Amino acid sequence: MRAKVMAALVVVPAVLSQTPATALPCDNTRWCAVYDRLGGTNCGFFTWQQCMATVSGIGGFCTINQFYNPCGPAGPRHSSRYRY
């Protein structure tokens, strides 16, 4: 039993360290609304104007999303099949 636990402690970090940093999900929502009275945050806005329209009636301010991770362009797709 002890050997299985030790093996798991060695294998799990090795497997997790193989995940590339580019595997992180992209997040195109650049702006966050921080609400004054409610004390909440909503980081679901693509433009500053969207964010400001949301906080204009209830109070608050907009700030840049600290987890902003833009998706790169899809680029051309290449088929793995050869065409003759």
Q: How many angstroms does the end-to-end distance come to?
A: 57 Å
Q: What helical percentage do the residues reach?
A: 25-40%
Radius of gyration: 22 Å
Number of helices: 2
Task: Explain what you see.
The protein is α+β, with helices and mostly antiparallel strands. The protein has a domain at 21-70. 27% of the residues lie in helices and 18% in strands. It is built from two helices and three strands; from the N terminus they run αββαβ. It has a three-stranded antiparallel β-sheet, with helices on one face.
In short:
The chain is an alpha+beta fold and 84 residues long. It has helices at 2-16, 48-55; strands at residues 31-35, 41-45, 60-64.
Main features:
3 strands; 2 helices; flat; alpha+beta; three-stranded antiparallel β-sheet; 84 residues
Secondary structure topology:
Layout: H1 2-16, E1 31-35, E2 41-45, H2 48-55, E3 60-64
Antiparallel strand pairs: 1-2, 1-3
